[in-house]
Description:
Layout: H1 2-28, H2 36-43, H3 46-68, H4 77-121, H5 128-186, E1 192-195, H6 206-226, E2 236-243, E3 246-253, H7 261-272, E4 284-289, E5 294-299
Coiled coil: 155-186
Region (Disordered): 25-81, 106-146
Keywords: Coiled coil
Amino acid sequence: MAFLLEEEDNREVLEAALSFVDEFGEARRPLSPQDPRERNSTLASPAFRDNKASRQATKNERRRQLRHAGVYGNPNRARNERRREIAGLRKQLEKLQLDLQTLQTRRGEIEARQPTEESTDSAPQLPSMWQQVATQQRRQRSEAEGENVRLKLAVQRQQKMADDLKSLLQRKARQLSNECASLIANTSRNSIVNIVEVRVDLGDFQQLFRHLEAARQEVDAVFAANGLANMVATPSDIHIREGDDGKYLEAFSNKLLAFRLQAVTEALWSHFKSLEKHAGNGSLYQKAEKVRTVRMAHAS
């Protein structure tokens, strides 16, 4: 039963296909040829000639208007259009290549940045205010480092200049000492100094006290002039000053002792009152006592 139904369906399909082919053949069948005399009469008719003349006149009028507007027929128009089309396609190809390179670069950056973003997503983001503070502190730190470098170079230059001046002064001092050594060697080593009688009343010591006070005032004046009177640090410096005899060089050194003033005074007095040394030139001396005069003979 199923086989019979299938045969009937196939038969219907075949009949429909044959009928479609017949209809298509009738549509493609050429029309009957026209009689040559009828065709010639149609071409020779006044209506056909007027229609052709009107079309030619319209075409000529259009050409005239185009020439008047400055548009002329170009025999190479098709070739130029193809060239323009090829140039446009080339530009479009270059643009597409640039877009492709840009997309590839962005893709690489995104892939490279993705692990970093994943690692930083867990960390808390700093507020913009703290970022500005950090940027300002970083800028101040860089400026301070630059200023420190500049000051360090300036200190090094000043230290080098001071060292050169110190060596020059030391060399000049040694030269002066060598020049004065010959004069000191030629002087007499035996000298007699007359001093006041010491075995008298205390009133005779007033003159010595006046000399001592004058010497102390001179020392205070020197200390006040070079700044040692109020100096707390322990520097060694050299100044160029101008006096009555012209300019002179003044070198001084200040040292602080970790002792009381009274203890230092007693130690200095115990040192310089000894009979075995002399504070001036380090020579040994001895005293000779007479009735009215005490003579001090210096011996080498």
